[in-house]
């Protein structure tokens, strides 16, 4: 059994303490490594079990709650800088409840010195638009995991991409790896298939600002 499978089992067992201990005992405590090699594959395994009716909705919700607890305990946000220049907001489309992936992306942006707003699951477009108009983020991250939400994604990208400050729209979630999302981006969104691509995009963004 792989470490990711062991972690998935701890999540499904609802074992907060053991899951936290298991992560803390990993030899490499780098956040990206933990996200890439443990958290993400563990939650994908749980998602596959749910899709195949091998676990119940209650089981999936319990596992998600334990994973969220472990993430929050491990990676508590440090004291905020008094002033930050870059802002990003992250949210799941309305009807989307799978928020852990975008929570990890939000955490990576915070580590890079961004000021973030994390809205979690199922944020209606009208509220996302209102917040973006007031806050004017340079980046808006969207998560989509359900196929029937693809037309909804197109509407979010079109609306948020038309904001006066022209934010970069990043699109991720389980569907980003499984489907061609280009037809739903209105030539405005940037598809992020995994955590490595998110890190690469951040590096390129940082280099562009330095060169500018």
UniProtKB/TrEMBL annotation:
Signal sequence region: none
State what protein this is by name.
Cobalamin B12-binding domain-containing protein
Q: Which organism is it from?
A: Fictibacillus barbaricus
The record's PROSITE patterns line, in alphabetical order, gives:
B12_BINDING
Q: One Pfam family, please name it.
A: B12-binding
Q: Which residues cross the membrane?
A: none
Q: Which residues form the B12-binding domain?
A: 85-212
What the entry lists under InterPro entries is as follows: Cbl-bd_cap, Cobalamin-bd, Cobalamin-bd_sf, Meth_synthase_dom
């Amino acid at each position: 059994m792989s470490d990711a499978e062991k972690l998935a089992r701890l999540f499904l067992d609802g074992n907060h303490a053991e899951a936290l201990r298991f992560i803390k005992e990993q030899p490499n405590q780098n956040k990206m490594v933990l996200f890439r090699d443990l958290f993400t594959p563990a939650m994908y395994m749980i998602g596959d079990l749910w899709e195949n009716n091998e676990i119940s909705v209650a089981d999936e919700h319990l596992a998600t709650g334990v994973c969220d607890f472990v993430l929050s305990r491990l990676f508590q946000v440090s004291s905020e800088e008094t002033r930050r220049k870059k802002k990003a907001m992250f949210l799941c489309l309305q009807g989307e409840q799978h928020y852990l992936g975008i929570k990890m992306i939000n955490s990576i942006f915070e580590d890079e010195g961004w000021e973030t707003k994390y809205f979690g699951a199922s944020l209606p477009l009208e509220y996302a638009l209102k917040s973006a108009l007031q806050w004017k983020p340079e980046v808006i991250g969207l998560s989509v995991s359900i196929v029937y939400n693809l037309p909804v994604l197109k509407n979010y990208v079109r609306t948020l991409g038309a904001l006066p400050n022209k934010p970069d729209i990043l699109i991720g979630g389980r569907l980003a790896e499984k489907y061609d999302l280009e037809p739903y981006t209105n030539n405005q969104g940037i598809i992020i298939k995994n955590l490595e691509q998110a890190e690469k995009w951040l590096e390129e963004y940082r280099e562009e600002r330095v060169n500018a």
